[in-house]
């Protein structure tokens, strides 16, 4: 049983399907690690207290705040960012719908929105618009007014559920 | 701003975590879901902490039926509380509360033990614990002890937990057959902290009402409970408003909070199916 605290911690995790080993500072949060050490700048470090959602990434199958999880806690985790989701292609329809529906303008919130929306879409079925809004309530967008984002998510939910486009 | 932690260690089990806390002394700090602590660290409200990460302690996670009550491990996440079938059946107040707590990504990591230990005056779970008559389980160097929820929450971010203790679980009595449990709250947007919220429990033994975000800690509204037991809803609203002493702040005025508490009590009584008693 070790009784040691360290200020640098060794971690081994999988990021976007690739194994990664690193030594991280004790206070570094996951999204800084992804951006500064791995060059994955899709998820954004913005408010850094969990309010804006721009840092949302997928950890062990669930959407989480990248700014509220320490990199040290990600030892053994399976992490996906928007870069990995794009490369794997599974979110291509959602990304296309965002473009079609003008669900992004500056794009700052979009990587977090995509991860948060996929978290909801993964449950299957076609969520009500109120449910989509509730699920995305923790992701700020200062451009679109949200209506187009809800449209895009709803459209993809319908298509994936085999019910055609709205 | 960036966090500066003094150090980090991963605890294998509760005794290990307690040893780490003892080693760290005053700088020692339990890290659970991190949904309040890491935010505070990022804002440098908390600096130089020696973090004891308890999230890998499997024994602190999950829900078990212990006969008369449910034992909910400290590391059970908000999202897990929200979908757990035992909790839905025997303590539906907690299931309903989860819908009001933060946003999906935060519910995926925040833990019930963290929310109770953090004791934010606007948080839902502490008020639920008080309304349900729950018991908080803690473990420290001197062993384990149990604290009644009513005695646990002492003030803003302050509990009966000692610095060298770990909150290990909460146990909640199972609802009786005809029991109703209801939460009502007013917040500006879904997922925001409540401007004021209220839990109503109506069980064979009588009513229980706990109000949150209306004082430094959840308020067990005894005078309102007595009036509800007597079937007097108007009296209960008046009594409730008299026994609250809410703060005025940038979110809401004291008068508004007191008014809303009365409105929420009426809504809750209506949803519970009438005047009770
Ligand atoms: C944007 C945002 C919105 C939120 N909205 C709400 C809301 O509406 N309602 C609500 O209730 N909460 C809300 N929260 C807070 C959230 O519920 C947190 O998860 C919770 O308050 C803390 O739980 P945690 O497991 O994340 O604890 P941590 O952040 O890890 O710890 C919090 C504190 O508790 C201590 N602690 C944690 N676990 C233990 C333990 N087992 N024993 C002893 N001490 C312990 C830590 O040392 C620390 O001081 C919100 C958070 C954010 C970021």
TrEMBL record, chain A:
Residues 9-85 form the 2Fe-2S ferredoxin-type domain. The keyword Zinc-finger does not apply. Signal peptide: none annotated. PROSITE patterns: 2FE2S_FER_1, 2FE2S_FER_2. The keyword Membrane does not apply. InterPro entries: 2Fe-2S-bd, 2Fe-2S-bd_dom_sf, 2Fe-2S_ferredoxin-like_sf, 2Fe-2S_ferredoxin-type, 2Fe2S_fd_BS, Beta-grasp_dom_sf, Diverse_Oxidoreductases. One of its GO terms (molecular function) is metal ion binding. This is (2Fe-2S)-binding protein.
TrEMBL record, chain B:
The keyword Oxidoreductase applies. Residues 1-177 form the FAD-binding PCMH-type domain. It comes from the Bacteria. The keyword ATP-binding does not apply. GO terms for molecular function: FAD binding; oxidoreductase activity. InterPro entries: CO_DH_flav_C, CO_DH_flav_C_dom_sf, Diverse_Substr_Oxidored, FAD-bd_PCMH, FAD-bd_PCMH-like_sf, FAD-bd_PCMH_sub1, FAD-bd_PCMH_sub2, Mopterin_DH_FAD-bd. Keywords: FAD, Flavoprotein, Oxidoreductase. It holds the Pfam family FAD_binding_5. PANTHER family: XANTHINE DEHYDROGENASE SUBUNIT C-RELATED. This is FAD binding domain-containing protein. It comes from Sagittula salina. The lineage of its organism: Bacteria, Pseudomonadati, Pseudomonadota, Alphaproteobacteria, Rhodobacterales.
């Amino acid at each position: 049983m070790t009784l040691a605290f360290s200020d640098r911690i060794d971690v081994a995790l999988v990021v976007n399907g690739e194994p990664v080993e690193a030594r991280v500072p004790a206070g570094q949060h996951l999204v800084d690690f992804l951006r500064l050490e791995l060059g994955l700048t899709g998820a954004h470090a913005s408010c850094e207290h969990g309010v804006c959602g721009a840092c949302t990434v997928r950890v062990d199958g669930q959407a989480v705040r990248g700014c509220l999880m320490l990199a040290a806690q990600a030892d053994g985790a399976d992490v996906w960012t928007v870069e990995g989701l794009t490369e794997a292609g599974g979110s291509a329809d959602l990304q296309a719908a965002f473009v079609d529906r003008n669900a992004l303008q500056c794009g700052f919130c979009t990587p977090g929105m995509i991860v948060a929306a996929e978290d909801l879409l993964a449950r299957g079925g076609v969520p009500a618009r109120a449910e989509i809004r509730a699920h995305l309530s923790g992701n700020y967008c200062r451009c679109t007014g949200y209506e187009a984002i809800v449209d895009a998510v709803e459209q993809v939910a319908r298509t994936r559920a085999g019910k055609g486009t709205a | 701003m960036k966090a500066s932690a003094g150090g980090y260690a991963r605890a294998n089990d509760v005794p290990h975590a307690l040893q780490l806390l003892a080693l760290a002394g005053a700088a020692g700090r339990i890290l659970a879901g991190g949904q309040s602590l890491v935010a505070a660290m990022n804002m440098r409200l908390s600096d130089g902490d020696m973090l004891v990460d308890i999230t890998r302690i499997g024994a602190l996670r999950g829900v078990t039926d212990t006969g008369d009550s449910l034992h909910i491990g400290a590391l059970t996440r908000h999202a897990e509380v929200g979908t757990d079938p035992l909790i839905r059946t025997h303590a539906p107040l907690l299931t309903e509360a989860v819908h009001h707590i933060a946003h999906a990504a935060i519910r995926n990591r925040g833990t019930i033990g963290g929310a109770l230990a953090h004791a934010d005056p606007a948080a839902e779970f502490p008020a639920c614990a008080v309304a349900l008559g729950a018991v908080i389980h803690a473990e420290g160097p001197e062993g384990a002890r149990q604290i009644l929820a009513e005695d646990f929450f002492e003030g803003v971010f302050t509990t009966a937990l000692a610095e060298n203790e770990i909150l290990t679980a909460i146990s909640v009595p199972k609802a009786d057959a005809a029991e109703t449990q209801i939460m009502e709250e007013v917040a500006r947007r879904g997922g925001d902290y409540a401007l004021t919220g209220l839990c109503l429990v109506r069980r064979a033994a009588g009513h229980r009402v706990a109000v949150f975000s209306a004082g430094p800690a959840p308020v067990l509204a005894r005078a309102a409970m007595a009036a509800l037991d007597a079937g007097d809803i108007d009296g209960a609203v008046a009594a409730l408003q008299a026994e609250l002493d809410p703060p005025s702040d940038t979110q809401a005025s004291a008068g508004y909070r007191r008014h809303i508490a009365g409105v929420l009590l009426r809504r809750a009584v209506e949803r519970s199916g009438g005047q009770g008693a």
